[in-house]
Amino acid sequence: MGILGGIFESNNKNNFNWIPLTETSQLKEIVELSKDKLVIIFKHSTRCGISSGVLSKFEKSMDTTSDTVAFYYLDLLKYRTISNEIAQKFNVDHQSPQAIFLKDGVVVNHASHYDIISKAINEI
């Protein structure tokens, strides 16, 4: 089992409802979805200890049972081109780890590193 498989397996045990972001075409869907609910894109580097720590704290601090938030997970090492497209489309410089918060088709907030957790709690 690869690193990503282990991450999603553990997330499923914790009932964290990540939606894998694996295609640039999903960005159109995300923009549309953000008209109905807050969308959070979490950009994670699977080789970075800080990113793994932030991801773990993020998962523990979020309520994924809410139907007012959609959580997207982007593996930066596997899908760097999608990260580049996000930076261009939403005019947000690339960071890792990074969370981008979308509402009504636009970025309403973004954060990197440990600021992700506090900004997420404030947005939700």
Note the beta-strand portion: 15-25%
Question: Architecture, according to CATH?
Answer: 3-Layer(aba) Sandwich
CATH topology: Glutaredoxin
Terminal CA distance reads 33 Å
Which stretches of 5+ consecutive residues score pLDDT under 50?
Answer: 1-13
Q: Percent helix among the residues?
A: 40-55%
Question: What is the assigned CATH homologous superfamily?
Answer: Glutaredoxin
Treating each run of at least 4 consecutive H or I residues as one helix, how many helices? 5
CATH class: Alpha Beta
How many domains make up the 3D coordinates? 1
Tell me the Rg in angstroms: 13 Å
Order of SSEs: HEHEHEHEEH
Largest sheet properties: 5 strands, mixed
CA-based shape = globular
Number of strands: 5
The overall average pLDDT, rounded, is: 86
Structural class: alpha/beta
Strand order of the largest sheet: 1-3-2-4-5
Describe this entry's structure for a reader.
The chain has 124 residues and is of the alpha/beta class. The chain has one domain: Glutaredoxin (3-Layer(aba) Sandwich). It contains five helices and five strands. Strands 1-3-2-4-5 form a five-stranded mixed beta sheet, with helices on both faces. α3 links the parallel β2 and β3. α3 runs parallel beside α5. The relative contact order is 0.21.
